[in-house]
Amino acid sequence: MRAQPDHKYSTVSSEILEQLAKPPAAAETGKLREETIGRLSDAPLISGRVLAAAARTAEAVAIAAAGLLLALLHPGYEATADAAFYVPVIIGAAVALPFIASVLGLYTVQSLLRPVDQMARIATVWSLIFAAMTTAVFLSKSGEDYSRIWLASWFLVGLMLLVVSRAVFANLTRHWNRNGQLSRHTVLVGGGKPAADLLAALDQSGSSDIDVVGIFDDRDDARSPTSVGNLKKLGNVSELVDFVRQARIDVLLVTLPLTAEDRLLQILKRLWVLPVDIRLSAYSQKFHYRPRAYSYIGNVPFLDVFDKPLGDWGSILKTIEDKVIAAIALVLLSPVMAIVALAIKLDSKGPVLFKQNRFGFNNELIGVYKFRSMYHEMRDADAAKLVTKGDPRVTKVGRFIRKTSLDELPQLFNVLRGELSLVGPRPHPTKAKAADQLYNDVVDGYFARHKVKPGITGWAQVNGWRGETDTTEKLQRRVEHDLYYIENWSIALDLYILWRTPISLLKTENAY
What we know:
alpha/beta; eight-stranded mixed beta sheet; 17 helices; 50% helix
């Protein structure tokens, strides 16, 4: 009998054979993808609009606070002892400053990156506002009602605060700019001449906030060159999906013409599940729509195909909502959680908590905490087998906490860690099945529900689609509700779902 080869050398040999079997171009593009992923920052994108709004708000609040504080601290008043008399003037100046500065373009990212030039301009705006305000007071013959000391102090302190504000925002903007957080990482879908024309137009526009990192195209090198200018082709559309999962990509710009309808639909069908903005280039299209139908990057027109959910302020508001409500809920529910933990410990051997791998935002694996509801030796970490009615794996306490969803309470810690939201599509176990098929094989576009963070409760749960998903119809209905939530998200909808959740928990016929 021939001796078996050593395992280590057998593995090395198979890896070498695998590499040799790959076409050289595929190996090269794979290496380019890895290098691109390595150099892209995974830090979250800072929206230019959010940054501008923060700067406007900070400067308006600084001006208003300075005026009011100086009025309150003023040792005496010439005509009135009521500081509230100054409030209309203070509010007027605090509103006028950011409005006029915005019209003059003093809150763009480019302006915030150049503090020396902008300090002079913002000081000029403040001086003109103050001059107009002083003139209005004089012409209305109410000058004697205002303290000259207060007016002079407010002007000087306000000017100093604006200079400090510009310096602070300049430092923050430079830091985020170095980290690549102010540029939207962008990929072109489709190469060749349309891609070259689009890149030239974006370069000429000069004011876009995008950073194009590569090209993906299904066509061979003869029809789509390996590079367009300095940009390399990083693979095909199937490889693009994995690339976006691994890298922080914010925008996909599709350069295909509208005349290539079948190919365009096939590509969009594969890409719409990704949590990115998808734009169709209208730069070289022969058919033109009305100007209002387009969105613009710089001055280059695009047709909006899909938008990233929770863009700009949405993600910030939802994060605040999650952290505040989850912290309050943990404090209020801590006695209940302590009682549940004690009951589990007394009922069966094993740890009180267990962690289960589930799909999170953008298909990332996260460890979701739950109170243990099964016998420890019968636990199913991957949920390969759904829990059914009368399941012998479930403990006595486990049946109660599963029906009442008390087993989900530890997921509040996942919310505070930023892995879950309070409201969103429920995170499903990685090997969960419906009708003996993995979930993503049952429902076309299933992974589109991962375009946002999963939640402890969701629109599907409060509409009766809670519990076992043993049939394809149940899973399809749940996914439909999840996609409706993603497309129609609002703070008001989240609060409505949170209010409905305790009521929906009373219906336990599908919870085992």
